[in-house]
Amino acid sequence: MPDPTPAPTRAQQITAAARTLLETEGPDALTMRRIAEAVGIRAPSLYKHFPDKQAVEAALKAESLRETAEALEAAEARTPGSFAALAAAYRTYALAHPHLYRLATDRPLEREAIAPGLENRAAAPLFRAVGGDEHVARAAWAFAHGMVMLELTGRFPADADLDKAWATGAEAFRAENSDGAP
Known about the structure:
Elements: H1 10-25, H2 32-39, H3 43-46, H4 53-78, H5 83-96, H6 98-105, H7 118-129, H8 134-152, H9 162-172
Helix pairs in contact: 1-2, 1-4, 4-5, 4-6, 4-7, 5-6, 5-8, 5-9, 7-8, 8-9
């Protein structure tokens, strides 16, 4: 029986090759020439599918948002309303994909280049876990992002108990603690 899964489009192949380069060699490897070589085409052919490197990066950022949404949705399904579960899923995803994570979060997000609703989908589990307050949700995301970035850059002392630091931060953002009171 033939495989019903459609073959990836050339744009999907390019994005996959770019991601492999990014994840295995870091952001410096993400050049149009290297991406073309990885796909097995000449660099000018890339421009039929992506106008520039920024468009390839936007596709990678969208992939990261989609995967983050999936990780957070799975955590939410296992433990509804638990910011600690979401924070753990966020941390796990970011540490497993450090270069992709940095690309997606260390630079401006070209919102017009991603599917409508994708950013909101990624944020929705967090929004629900902190009681529906967008300001608390932003603060909680800033906590998680800051912790991940500090961990990725090796800024914590070698003897730091990062699991305890994450648990302490997660406790501060539990929905029942997020009532807006000072």
